[in-house]
Specification:
130 residues; Beta-lactamase Inhibitory Protein, Chain:B, domain 1; two-stranded antiparallel ribbon; 2 helices; 25% helix; 53% strand
Length: 130
């Protein structure tokens, strides 16, 4: 293989990667519904009005411990006065999991919502619906 053909092959592969890689990462948290797109941050209502009713849906509650800053006693630290403190809080997070079976020629789509907002989309195997 000549140096010129190796260079052409390199540029062709680089161009292909530039097209494929961004679309793969963008696809991770979005789903096409006909000619419309739902993406991370969309509400349950928007996804339902854009894509229709899911084929399956489950809801669960998850408890998470988070650190938050709140008011506290004032203390001097490194020449500065701070009047807050960091505390741990346990919060409830409502998780909705929706499944769209888009037919035998497309992949099943799994949508995950937290507090009513779309946070993640994954693909499964090919659908089963006709």
């Amino acid at each position: 293989m000549t140096k010129g053909s190796m260079l052409r092959r390199f540029y062709a592969l680089a161009a292909l990667a530039a097209v494929v890689l961004p679309s793969a990462s963008a696809r991770a948290d979005s789903m096409n519904c006909g000619d419309r797109l739902v993406t991370s941050g969309d509400t349950l209502y928007r996804v339902r009005s854009t894509c229709g009713e899911p084929d399956d849906a489950h809801q669960r509650i998850e408890y998470r411990t988070v650190r938050v800053r709140g008011p506290g006693a004032c203390v001097q630290e490194n020449g500065r006065v701070r009047c807050d403190k960091e505390v741990e809080q346990t919060i409830q997070v409502v998780i909705d999991e929706w499944v769209y079976d888009l037919g035998k020629n497309r992949f099943v789509e799994y949508l995950y919502f937290e507090q009513g907002r779309l946070v993640h989309v994954t693909e499964g195997s090919y659908g089963r619906k006709d």
